Predict the 3D structure of the following.
Amino acid sequence: MVAVAGAAFGSYWFQPWKLWQDETVEEALPGVVATSAPPAGAPRGQPSAQPSSTASGPQTLASGDLISHEHATSGTAKLLRLADGSHVVRLENLDTSNGPDLRVWLTDAPVEQGKAGWHVFDDGKYVSLGKLKGNKGSQNYALPSDVDWSSYSSVSIWCDRFDVSFGAAELARL
């Protein structure tokens, strides 16, 4: 009876089936707005032979490649400023293992290779941007409006259950 209870608790805690379950999320790049306007000097109310089109989109403020920590992880993390002034962390082409209680963290910790980098992200300042939407694909995570993005230098795919980084990216300012 104790062995069954222990196995049930272990299965709940570790959720080993997630290692074989991939969840792909493909979100569009946020905030791309296309507008059409008549060329300068064209009379109002008359169709133009060649309408001009302008596109405004997000501005990349910082970017970095994800490196592996506890689990093989690859992709790119970007910090974007949207046209409305809000900020988003975007994970592009993410490929990592699935796991229990994975989060996306914006942190002030340096990204270190190997086991040295597994546990550093909760030592300093960090902001949880929410649960990882999928362990594969491209996804967007909004920064709360009161977060000063300039005081953070990295992104981690953080396993909150085991306090370990699956992978992380140092954000190089552009």
Summary: The longest helix spans residues 2-14.
